[in-house]
Amino acid sequence: MSTTTNLDTLKINYLTQAQYEAALSGGTINENELYMTTDGYTVPSTTAYTDTSLKNIIESTSDPGSTSAPNGTVWLKYGDSTLPTMADYIVDEYLSGGTAGDWSWRKWNSGIFECWASHSVTLTADSTTGSLYYSTSCYAQLPKLTGTTYAATGAIAEVACGNNMMWASNVGMTGGTPTGTPSDSNTAGTVWWRAMRGIALPSTGSFRIYVKCRWSAT
User: Fold this and answer.
1) d(CA 213, CA 200)
2) Could you tell me which residues come within 8 angstroms of residue 169 by beta carbon, excluding any fewer than 6 positions away?
3) Is residue 186 part of a domain?
4) Is there a single domain that holds both residue 105 and residue 212?
5) pLDDT tens digits for 154-202?
6) Which pLDDT does position 183 carry in this prediction?
7) Number of domains within the chain
8) Is the dihedral of CA 172, 176, 182, 187 positive or negative?
9) Could you say which of 34, 61, 179, 207 has the lowest number of CB atoms within 10 Å?
10) What pTM value is reported for the model?
11) Buried b / exposed e across 62-92, counting CB within 10 Å, b at 16+?
């Protein structure tokens, strides 16, 4: 029954479950009063109550074996499953990260590796197509992290130009463990691209690089 509660006259009654049921059946429950009890459901002695035995919480319309609370109470249901842990809700887990040369990088427990950098390279004019000028291939080697190799399969390599109205084309990546200095697109652990522009290319270019691939221990 909907009532209007006057906080100035609000009364709180602390009753046992038995006292509340007696008042309820006797018609002595009054408006503008709260009835509270510290009584709770006592787990039967035959049930082993441990945190790891708690399976789930259900709303039941029948008493599971105790008379200390009425039907319709929210009960604890027990089973052989364990409680979910935080790991059950974590999609991935950050392992480590840092910087290496121009690169910033992050490793994830799932095997994902991310790195990004602002990289400056010397540009050498190569060819023109229509009104577009292309450079020879530019290279950036992935972070040289001890015991880490990179997979090109399924990798994402993105290169954007940071100056002089240029674009990056023919972007690709070679997997492997980076060593030495990249000299061609076959060098392990290397991203490559070509710069292009509608007018003659400058002598140097600044490029923003982002790579997402899989890593493994070597």
Assistant:
1) 34
2) 134, 193, 194, 195, 196
3) yes
4) yes
5) 999 999 986 667 889 899 999 999 988 888 889 999 999 999 998 889 9
6) 86
7) 3
8) negative
9) 61
10) 0.58
11) eeeeeeebeeebebbebeeeeeeeeeeeeee
